[in-house]
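This part of the workshop introduces the protein records we will be handling. Getting from the letters to the C-alpha cells is the skill we practise here. The record below serves as our worked example for the rest of this section.

…
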Amino acid sequence: MSGAKLRANRVIGRIAIEASCGNVFADLGYSNPEEAVVKSRLMQRIQELIVEQNLTPAQTAVLLGLDKLHTSRLLRGSLREFTTERLFKFLNGLNQDVEIVIKQKPATRQRAVLSVIPV
C-alpha cells in the first residue's frame, strides 16, 4: 500500500477498538492534525523547560510576558490558545534557540510532514 497505514478494527467484549492512524489529533477529527502535533510537542518542551528551570507559575508568567490566565492555559497544554510562532517566542524566552529546517522528503514516503525534534 505504498506508505499508507492499515487501520484494523476489532471488538473486545462489547468495546470496539479502532487502530490509530498514527496521529491522535487526526483520530480525534482535528481540522489540522499535523499542526496540532507540532504545537503539542513545542508545548511539551516548554513545560519540560519550566520544570527543569524550577520556575513557579508566577515566574513563568513574568519571564514569558503572560497574564495568570494564559500562564495557566500554557501549563495545562491548551493548544488552541497559542500560535506556533508564539510558542517559538516562549522557547526563546526560556533561552532556547529555535531552528526551522526545510528539506526534501524521502522518495519512500508519500507525503511531506511537519516535525519537531528537540535536541
The longest helix spans residues 33-52.
